[in-house]
Amino acid sequence: MRVYPVPVQLDQEEKVIGGYLTLRQLLYLILGAVIGCGTALTFNLPLITKLIIAAGGLTIGIILAFIPAEKTTLDIYLLRWIMWTVKKRKYYLGGDS
């Protein structure tokens, strides 16, 4: 039996869910819905406030799932930005040495 090498596709994530969504996008959509709707239903608030909170959670999930930033996904971009801002830096005063 012949064996053919198959190149690994490393430049982008594989669209697994119906050919439209990656697993990461699906996870962000589900987490946004669960967090937004769960928060809205947990507290005894007026209906309009619950709808605004649920829409906010869904919006955050959609933004994290579909909006790219600097040729990468937004979640990776935000993680790298947070690591860059928290990281300790060493500053040197340059002299004539």
From TrEMBL:
InterPro entries: Uncharacterised_PrgI (IPR024414)
Keyword list, A-Z: Membrane, Transmembrane, Transmembrane helix
Sequence intervals crossing the membrane: 26-45, 51-69
Pfam families named among the record's database cross-references: PrgI
The protein, known as: PrgI family protein
Source organism (scientific name): Desulforamulus profundi
